[in-house]
Amino acid sequence: MIYPPINELLKTVDCRYTLVVETAKRARQLVSGDPQLTEEQFIKPVSIAIQEIYEGKVTCERREGLK
Q1: Which residue range(s) make up the domain with 33?
Q2: pLDDT of res. 2
Q3: What pLDDT sits at residue 53?
Q4: Distance set, CA 21 to CA 15, 17, 50 (Å)
Q5: Is residue 31, in this structure, part of any structural domain at all?
């Protein structure tokens, strides 16, 4: 089972596309050496990024004027 559930993650963003883009962006930052913001000990950068978004430590915003 995937944790956190996708339904819970979608409550933190406006759409799935934003969630995917922000998760990928944060995972790339982690791979390039940025410090981890969560205490969970996941191995994969995408898992860490998802957990950080779920915990609210990384916010997902869309710029004005973009749809």
Answers
A1: 6-54
A2: 66
A3: 92
A4: 10, 6, 11
A5: yes
Pair of tokens at residue 15: 């759409």
1 belongs to a structural domain? no
Both structure tokens of 51: 């957990």
Number of domains in the chain: 1
Assess contact for 19 and 62: CB atoms under 8 A. no
67 in any annotated domain:
no
Phi/psi at 50 (5° precision): -65, -45
**What is the phi/psi pair of residue 26, to 5°?**
-65, -40
Summarize pLDDT for 14-56 with one digit per residue, the tens.
889 889 999 999 999 999 999 999 888 888 999 999 999 999 9
